[in-house]
Specification:
heterotrimer, A alpha+beta, B alpha+beta, C alpha/beta, B: alpha+beta, four-stranded antiparallel β-sheet, C: alpha/beta, six-stranded parallel β-sheet, five-stranded parallel β-sheet, 19 strands, globular
């Protein structure tokens, strides 16, 4: 395994605070998650896109790593030589601006939803809620029913109860339901920016209800409400607001996140779009 | 009489039967090979007398000829047009479908859905209900694509107004046809007929078709054999994985689309559409296979299968030596890798003409070339190699056009020999997607499935009776 | 329905792997649901709703991944969990040794994969076996045909072909052989040495080879011919060919010939062949027969004596003097229960059962009842119903159709032991426990609880056939059975004699 000191630094998220990180929350082949107060900072291989709470290394596999120290202009991995943080490697999340031509937004979202419905992972929540289960007593069938119930409650503005149908529920390493809520929040937060709809109350209620005891999920939820999004999401949303819609490429990238995480986030995203973006008709 | 002769040292053992014996031997450090044996079919024992050495010699001669014809084929994409203008025998009231002949009454869900969709698309009905009524009325005729020089994936529906690709086998001057691939999700070939499906089909008529037609015309022709050969070297088997084939195609098409462009948005949309659909090339690899197989029809005594096709109800094959006769048996529900939330209970029996790729020595027969999809067939590259290796045991020969890098560029197994299928009791493997049994839900799984034996048994019998 | 779960801490799983694991589990027959999830409180609620929340999950942290399986039986669920473990721990992309897992659907491919094999071991159903054996001979492979139900006609053709090609054709119905030191099918791990065996009987071969090992001698080659080679129809083709081989084999100093008595014409040919060699030959045909006077030949009265005399001949040839003979522990004759009077022998080895019948005859001057008796009046009409003294071969066809051989699967014998024990007439239960390759991996584990639970007035006599190098280790097995209350022997003759002596004493008292 290559020594970590020889590995280049591709990107450092602007939200990674200065200080020494030594508490490993979880360790995987391509990402090591360090506790950072209530949240998580991740050291990842280049398979991951830049994010506000991420440090991306120019490697395919992660070397042994126990601690790192982030300083203003450098990072020290374990007790090695400081690695300089160049200005261009600092990842600042994009900001979103009002999109004056609502028609563009409407058309793009509708089109991208059609793309999504054909491309999304078959394990995703969107696929699950539109599937038929012959054996109603399997885990997947009961899960899908809970999700369906949640969608119904979101439609009826019963936010807290709706959240309960998703929170911490689902298959995979991050429960799919949590990913769904992340996408749902991203959608609301983003629409408040680009449309100037007054959605901040809903945003707050859902966020508070969604936060739980999993720091990794909390980190994603926080990024969603503050719109400190990773590059794929940020570019996806930006492209939805432009005339030359290039959202498809970014959407495919999001879909490739995790096992079905990306598709689950998008499942939540489009549901929120269909509920809170005026004039949009999605066949959800 | 020879002196009994034992070699010195631990004997190397071939074990046929109880694998615990092999395990015990293995434990003792003995070299042992376990035979993955299946009992011969009863039919092989019954018909033993019919297949005399003389008969077998005739069959061999015929098969040599058939294999040569198949290997000599040169398929090119030469143009596009409308089904009603090009497909031989196409009529306004005719709908072509995948697999062997079938009536409306016996069609499975996805195929019915696709027929309804086609009638809506043709403007023959305004609502799914009236379309269904019309479909069942007797006014509409149905025929296999294969009987009209065409092929179609999944439901394989072709109606008169659909644009089709034209493939020309230059060596034998025959043509085959296939529609444009619609992409994944809610699509006609899985039996979906919602507005979005019909709208997409019309967009394909209005935008995709003319753009491609101009580009192909500009290029003159595209050598499909060369594209397929390259795609095999790039990880495709051109049945369940067509990513490389699609990429190679777009590399040829893109400059021509730009040079013949009438409208920037539309051209961009066409490129986007193809780029976003990894299976676009499937609708070319299939008719390319058919184009090279068709000239080998009607070679008396040949036991090589030229068609394997499923209509979602029945699995049918046609042999070179038995003319246009179909040999059929019930299509099986695939034992595939089902997407979570789905199981075998949701699956439709095997459907589609796409098994023409296996018949042509590609698809499941060439899966050793496609390590990227072996995760879906058991998880490791060795499994894929062993699938391909086992197919050599039932094929009459090897392809001289398509090779497998992982087998030191050995030609793919080619020419399914019914005699070998029956006598080795080893059925062809087909690398396929699985459709939901209800119309329009789409793909619910993927994997390698075995062809049912019944059609091969019937063909084996029929060939002996000739 | 049985639900089982496994907690996985700190494991990285990618999506495809997760999908494959749950697919593989759901595909197992008897498994109705399988999921891989984090053990969150909310997921537990769903597990509870689908009756899948088991105790193990309660110990899991909310951040632990759990695999939960619902299956028809405990066994299936356990299997699924083991399978999940293997799948998760298997490095992705590699399997086994890294050799290409070439599919070997026929003999030729398999032989080629070994860079030409030497011997083909065939154990498929009899009706297909002859065709495959013929193919193997055509490929130049020696054949050991374990399968039975092969016609005499096919057997003759195969043996003629083998002899013409200088190949071994062992069987059909050949259960045991040791070739160049390698035990094949049902055989024991015995040392290599200078005693060659030709046997028409599988367990006979096992008993003798193990006996040789007990007397510190080894085996050069041990050929099985199958039970019918000595019949008139086959003419002893292989008996003669194997004897010829051993006579000319430099490594073989002493020859052992065993099996049921061959046809007279065959017998004649055998005597002729034995007369031309100077090597000591020890013969046992399991019954008393008239034997010609051949100076280098000894005819024995039991399999154990066969081993003993063969070793003595070897020792004599090589001037080896054995100071003291290995003695069995002194035998205590337990009294048999009051009022009960019969012996019930429940065998898995056919030859051993046959030998027991002969020994009984020597003792009591008549035969006991048996399902393999050749005397019509002593042939059991219903092998399930014992009357008087009975010796039953549970390896005979009437018991083995559709189930594994009793050397592998003890369930039938255990059931039969319990039935016999309930019969107030039963005094002694005599069983053989055959060890070695092919046999049950741990017979004591099955027998001990049943023996321990039998009524105390029933005497259980056990013959344990095996060596300490066998996978099951004869010493360990014998010890466990003795601890359970059985009287244990490692030589068949001794076991039977003990049991019969006991019976006789008991009867005299009565």
């Amino acid at each position: 395994m290559e020594s970590i000191n020889n590995i280049g630094l591709l990107s450092v998220g602007a939200c990674v605070p200065e200080g020494r990180f030594q508490l490993i929350y979880s360790h995987h082949a391509k990402v090591i998650n360090f506790s950072c107060g209530e949240l998580i900072v991740s050291v990842c291989t280049r398979d991951y896109c830049p994010g506000a709470f991420r440090i991306i290394l120019d490697a395919d596999l992660l070397p042994e790593l126990k601690t790192f120290t982030k300083l203003k202009h450098s990072i020290i991995f374990d007790s090695g030589k400081p690695v300089k943080i160049s200005d261009k490697s600092i990842y600042l999340s994009l900001e979103f601006h009002l999109v004056p031509e609502r028609v563009i937004l409407q058309k793009n979202i509708e089109k991208s939803f059609r793309d999504f419905s054909s491309l999304c992972s078959p394990e995703s929540i969107y696929s699950m809620v539109s599937s038929y289960y012959r054996d109603e007593n399997t885990f997947s069938a009961v899960l899908a029913n809970s999700y369906r119930q949640g969608i119904k409650m979101f439609r009826e503005n019963e936010f807290e109860n709706a959240v309960k149908c998703f929170k911490r529920k689902g298959i995979g390493l991050t429960p799919a339901g949590d990913d769904f809520l992340v996408g749902f929040l991203i959608s609301i937060a983003w629409m408040s920016q680009v449309q100037k709809n007054e959605l901040s109350k809903i945003l707050k209620v859902i966020f508070v209800a969604s936060v739980g005891n999993d720091p990794l999920v909390n980190t994603f939820l926080t990024q969603a409400v503050t719109l400190k999004l990773d590059e794929d999401w940020a570019m996806f949303l930006t492209s939805l607001g432009t005339k030359e819609d290039e959202s498809l490429g970014w959407m495919t990238k999001i879909i490739s996140h995790g096992s079905s995480s990306g598709s689950d986030e998008l499942s939540g995203f489009y549901l929120a779009c269909s509920l809170y973006c005026n004039d949009i008709g999605l066949d959800y | 009489m020879k002196k009994l002769n034992l070699t010195v040292g631990k004997p190397k053992i071939v074990n046929l039967g109880l694998d615990s014996f092999a395990a015990d031997l293995h434990l003792q450090g003995v070299d042992v090979a376990q035979v993955d044996w299946t009992p011969p079919l009863d039919i092989a024992i019954q018909m033993k007398a019919k297949y005399t050495d003389k008969v077998r010699a005739e069959i061999t001669l015929a098969n040599d000829k058939a294999l040569a014809v198949i290997n000599q084929g040169k398929p090119f994409l030469v143009g596009m047009g409308l089904a009603r203008d090009l497909i031989p025998g196409m009529q306004e009231n005719l709908i072509l479908h995948a697999g062997p002949p079938i009536t409306w009454a016996k069609m499975c869900g996805p195929m019915r859905g696709a027929v309804i969709g086609a009638l809506l698309y043709e403007g023959r009905a305004d609502t799914p209900e009236t379309a269904e009524k019309l479909a069942a009325s007797g006014e509409i005729n149905y025929a296999p694509c294969h009987e009209h020089a065409a092929v179609g994936p999944m439901a394989g529906i072709i109606s008169p107004s659909m644009p089709v690709f034209v493939i020309h086998n230059e060596t034998f001057d025959n043509y085959t046809y296939a529609t444009q691939n619609e992409g994944l999700g809610k699509v006609l070939r899985y039996g979906a007929y919602g507005t979005e499906v019909i709208t997409r089909l019309h967009w394909m008529d209005d935008v995709l078709y003319p753009t491609l037609q101009r580009a192909i015309k500009y290029l003159g022709k595209i050598d499909l054999q060369s594209l397929i050969a390259q795609a095999l070297h790039m990880g495709d088997e051109v049945h369940n994985r067509n990513r490389a084939g699609t990429s190679l195609l777009i590399r040829q098409l893109a400059p021509a689309i730009l040079k013949t462009m009438e409208n920037v948005q539309e051209s961009a949309a066409v490129l986007d559409f193809i780029n976003g659909n990894d299976h676009f090339f499937l609708n070319l690899s299939m008719p390319a296979c058919k184009a090279v197989l068709d000239p080998a029809r009607n070679i008396p005594n040949s036991s090589i299968a030229l068609v394997m096709a499923r209509n979602g109800t029945e699995f049918g094959i046609q042999l070179s030596g038995t003319g246009d006769k179909w040999f059929t048996g019930p299509a099986l529900v695939p034992d595939a890798l089902y997407f979570p939330g789905y199981s075998k209970a949701d699956a439709n029996p095997d459907i589609g003409d796409s098994a023409i790729t296996e018949t042509g020595g590609l698809g499941g027969f060439a899966i050793a070339a496609a390590p990227a999809i072996v995760q879906f067939v058991g998880g490791c590259a060795n499994d894929a190699l062993s699938y391909t290796l086992s197919m050599y045991e039932i094929c009459y020969g090897e392809s001289t056009n398509y090779q497998i890098p992982a087998l030191d560029f050995r030609g793919t197994p080619l020419g399914i020999d019914v005699l070998k299928v029956i006598e080795n009791n080893l059925s062809p493997v087909i690398d396929t997607g699985v459709a939901h049994k209800n119309p329009g839900i789409g793909q619910v799984g993927a994997g390698v499935v075995k062809a049912p034996m019944e059609p091969f048994i019937k063909a084996y019998q029929a060939l002996a009776e000739l | 329905m049985e639900v089982m779960a496994k907690i996985i801490k700190g494991k990285y799983l990618d999506s495809v792997k997760l999908m494959l694991v749950s697919k593989a589990l759901r595909e197992m027959s008897g498994v109705s649901d399988a999921v891989a999830i984090l053990a969150t409180k909310e997921n537990r609620e769903i597990l509870a709703a689908t009756e899948m929340l088991v105790d193990e999950i309660l110990d899991a942290a909310e951040t632990d991944l759990v695999i939960v399986v619902k299956a028809a039986t405990t066994e299936t669920a356990e299997k699924a969990i083991v399978q999940a473990d293997e799948l998760i721990n298997a490095p992705s992309g590699h399997k086994g040794s890294g050799n290409v897992a070439q599919s070997l659907h026929n003999l030729e491919a398999a032989s080629n994969s070994l860079n030409k094999g030497d011997l083909c071991l065939i154990s498929i159903a009899g009706k297909y076996a002859a065709v495959e054996a013929d193919k193997a001979l055509e490929l130049g492979l020696h054949v050991m045909l374990f399968s039975d139900n092969v016609s005499l006609e096919d057997e003759l053709k195969l043996k003629q072909k083998a002899v013409a090609k200088g190949l071994l054709m062992m069987g059909p119905d050949c259960g045991t052989a040791i070739i160049n030191g390698v035990p094949l099918a049902f055989a024991n791990k015995v040392p290599r040495g200078n005693i060659g065996i030709v046997s028409a009987s599988g367990t006979g071969l096992q008993e003798v080879s193990v006996g040789l090992a007990r007397f510190h001698c080894g085996v050069s080659q041990a050929f099985g011919t199958g039970g019918r080679d000595g019949k008139k129809e086959i003419g002893g083709i292989m008996l003669l060919a194997f004897l010829d081989y051993l006579i000319n084999d430099a490594q073989t100093q002493v020859i052992v010939l065993i099996g049921k008595t061959p046809d007279t014409i065959v017998l004649d040919k055998l005597w002729q062949q034995l007369a031309i060699t100077a090597k000591p030959v020890v013969v046992n045909f399991l019954t008393e027969i008239a034997i010609p006077n051949i100076p280098n030949m000894q005819y024995t009265s039991s399999l154990d004596e066969t081993a003993e005399l063969a070793c003595a001949a070897y020792n004599k040839l090589n001037n080896i003097i054995i100071a003291t003979k290995a003695e069995e522990t002194t035998i205590v004759f337990n009294a048999i229960g009051k009022g009960s009077k019969y012996i019930r022998g429940l065998y898995s080895g056919g030859t051993l059962c046959y030998e027991a019948l002969q020994l009984y005859h020597q003792y009591f001057g008549k035969y006991p009842f048996s399902n393999i008796s050749t005397e019509p009046e002593y042939k059991m009409a219903d092998a399930w119903h014992s009357e008087g003294d009975c010796f039953i071969d549970l390896g005979a066809d009437d018991f083995t159709v559709g189930r594994p051989h009793p050397m592998i699967d003890y369930s039938l014998r255990l059931k039969k032991m319990q039935i016999e024990a309930k019969d107030p007439d039963t005094a002694i239960i005599l069983i053989d426990v055959v060890l070695g390759y092919g046999a049950h991996p741990d017979p004591a584990s099955e027998l001990v609880p049943v023996i321990a639970a039998l009524p105390k007035d029933i005497v259980v006599v056990c013959h344990v056939l095996g060596t300490k190098d066998d996978p099951q280790n004869v010493e360990k097995q014998a010890e466990q059975l003795a601890n359970a209350g059985a009287i244990v022997f490692t030589a068949h003759h001794k076991a039977v004699v003990y049991a019969l002596e006991l019976l006789k004493t008991g009867r005299n008292k009565a």
